[in-house]
Design brief:
With about 90 residues, the protein is an all-alpha fold. The chain is built from 6 helices and no strands.
Length: about 90
């Protein structure tokens, strides 16, 4: 699988309908469209900011502390992450 251009994905997310965005994210992850919809609604995050959170999670070079700091600075980023984590545990 080729590298994901997270910056381009975030830019496109702001232009896509919710359904288009959910389909795009579902195709890149193991998360269903229904789950993505729930995470976004529960956290009240924008599509663009959701991609920013996913980009930070995927940042292999960043430490966990750096990832946490970056996500904390994204509007509703922590809420989105907590919503996702609550489905796992």
């Amino acid at each position: 699988m080729s590298e994901i251009d997270w910056d381009n994905l975030a830019e496109q997310a702001g232009k896509q309908t919710d359904t288009e965005f959910q389909t795009t994210i579902a195709s890149l992850t193991r998360i269903s469209i229904k789950e993505i919809d729930q995470f976004i609604k529960e956290s009240e995050i924008s599509n663009e900011n959701a991609v920013k959170v996913l980009k930070e999670i995927n940042a292999a070079a960043a430490s966990n502390t750096a990832k946490a700091d970056a996500i904390a600075n994204i509007d509703n980023g922590v809420n989105f992450l907590v919503s996702m984590a609550s489905r796992i545990v």
